[in-house]
UniProtKB/TrEMBL annotation:
Residues annotated as domain Glycosyltransferase 2-like: 243-371
Protein name from the UniProt record: Glycosyl transferase family 2
Recorded superkingdom: Bacteria
InterPro entries tied to this protein: Glyco_trans_2-like, Glycosyltransf_2, Nucleotide-diphossugar_trans
Length: 514
């Protein structure tokens, strides 16, 4: 490990893990120092630290933070980031509203303290601009590389516990913000950003917009797969897993799932089935769980209460194994699925993983294992102890968003969700069971129908920044206007505002019900 100490964008010291001076050139920009050290020490972890925080650097935690060579992490005690909060107008992921108390996935990087392996710098150096401001350089690197398989985090353990804010955070100007958007998003987003400033802040950012148009979008086609991942973190004590499956009216499909599980090279310990049938007096139709022999224990719960959130919560309460595989009753699994999942979890040191989840007629478009802002409640595996602190939010029952909310609960606890691009579960999307009844939503009879769906509003209010919520509102309004029959802009805006207000109203009702 080499520590680059810096101040005012210049390197002031270069130290080893014992904080002894390393024979290297100081006085250059931090970006150039990173490049030079990466070439000179190609297998070394490069840590940067502002001079003000050098005594607070948590050397003892470094090895566990960077537990494999494709991790980039940084931290600042400040609530502010280099990119101003207005980046939320154009960013749609859940990576902006950072929980500073845990290891949290985000591409927002800080020059305060952080680190990355030299292999990453060397692999990407042809696409990195070492003449950029250090903060800009870090955020540009992480924004582009995160989707390509660089694992990026805000990590409070980089500093000793209770380290106070010692310096003001450098913040990008509006010119730098517009430049960043032009270089890292599609060109249309700089115009959207300008519009958002005008609508929500009554500011015209004409000059930053015009200047940004002269920059080109930067490449993101990085080949980080050349850097193998072998985590030193031990996440698997034994390979015991419980599988949970909610089901309703899909007897034959569920049978196929159970057969697939019985053929696994690593078999589950328990399969927990929650069968739902709303018809009073009805009994289970799953006779084969008793009449046939299975190479695992089946825990069967029968309930007249329908709803996948409730069913999954009932199943989670019955989990006893080290790992939990969340499944569905219309999945098809290859024989090595569980074995493959354990292999990937072990290599990445991960506690949560999600698979490729396509229907038979769909094709995979994203081919690289990476962090993801989504979560699949029918195709994910989770370390079971994590489940003690989470549940499926009943406010989402019979609507959309419960998967993403559950994934966000995991991230808020410090458990990143890793998408394994080479592990697949087929989702048949089977027809719904014959005895399912249509659920009437609370807002179904509203004269003015809410827009967006109140559960989407709830998801965004919980996990988006204020600027992300406003950016989504503007984008939804523009798209809805484009598809609306009435084209009178003032009438449309008035009606859309009412729809948004009803969405917020019902969102609050859902919050109070949970």
């Amino acid at each position: 490990m080499i520590v680059i100490v810096h101040q005012h964008n210049k390197t002031t010291k270069i130290l080893d893990c014992n904080k002894h001076a390393v024979n290297a050139v100081v006085g250059e920009t931090v970006t150039k120092t990173l490049n030079n050290l990466a070439e000179k020490f190609p297998e070394t972890l490069l840590v940067w630290c502002h001079e003000s925080y050098l005594e607070d650097l948590n050397i003892d935690a470094i090895a566990t933070i960077f537990h494999h060579k494709r991790i980039m992490a940084s931290f600042s005690p400040s609530k502010e980031n280099f990119l101003p909060k207005q980046i939320g107008y154009v960013e749609r992921s859940f990576f902006l509203k950072i929980n500073k108390t845990v290891n949290y996935p985000t591409w927002l990087m800080h020059s305060c303290v952080g680190g990355v392996y030299a292999e990453v710098i060397n692999q990407l150096k042809a696409d990195l601009n070492y003449n950029e401001n250090f903060n800009y350089y870090l955020n540009s690197l992480s924004k582009r590389a995160m989707v390509e398989g660089l694992f990026c985090y805000s990590e409070p353990k980089l500093l000793l516990e209770n380290t106070p804010l010692r310096i003001d955070v450098e913040q990008a100007s509006s010119f730098q913000l517009f430049k960043f958007v032009k270089q890292h998003y599609k060109w249309v987003w700089v115009f959207f950003l300008c519009m958002a400033y005008a609508v929500f802040e009554k500011k015209l950012k004409v000059f930053p917009l015009v200047k940004a148009l002269f920059y080109r979008q930067l490449s993101t086609n990085f080949q980080l797969q050349n850097i193998p991942i072998t985590s030193i973190k031990k996440v698997i004590q034994n390979k015991e897993v419980d599988v949970i499956i909610p089901t309703i009216g899909r007897k034959n499909y569920l049978y196929d799932v159970l057969k697939d599980l019985s053929h696994q090279t690593v078999k589950p310990k328990n399969v927990i089935i929650v069968e739902q049938n709303p018809i009073g007096g009805s009994v289970s139709e799953l006779d084969y769980i008793i009449t046939e022999e299975w190479p695992y224990n089946i825990k069967h719960i029968f309930t007249h209460q329908t709803g996948v959130c409730n069913a999954r919560n009932l199943a989670l309460a019955e989990v006893t194994s080290e790992w939990t595989l969340l499944g569905d009753d219309d999945n098809r699994l290859n024989n090595t699925l569980i074995e493959d999942l354990f292999s990937r979890l072990e290599h990445h040191g991960a506690t949560v993983g999600t698979t490729v989840y396509l229907q038979p007629n769909e094709f995979q478009t994203y081919l690289k294992t990476a962090q993801t802002s989504i979560f699949g409640a029918g195709n994910s595996i989770v370390k079971s102890y994590v489940l003690d602190a989470v549940k499926f939010n009943m406010a989402y029952e019979f609507n959309y968003g419960e998967d993403n909310d559950f994934g966000m609960q995991l991230r808020q606890l410090g458990h990143d969700v890793i998408y394994f691009a080479d592990v697949k579960i087929t989702h048949l999307k089977a027809p719904i069971g014959g005895y399912r009844t249509k659920v009437q939503q609370l807002w179904e009879n509203d004269t003015i129908q809410p827009k967006p769906s109140p559960t989407i509003q709830l998801l965004h209010q919980t996990y988006f920044t204020i600027q992300q919520q406003l950016g989504y509102k503007l984008l939804l309004g523009l798209r809805s206007y484009k598809n609306s029959t009435g084209k009178h802009p003032l009438k449309y805006i008035k009606h859309f505002k009412k729809q948004w207000e009803r969405s917020v109203y019902w969102c609050q009702k859902l919050k109070s019900q949970d």
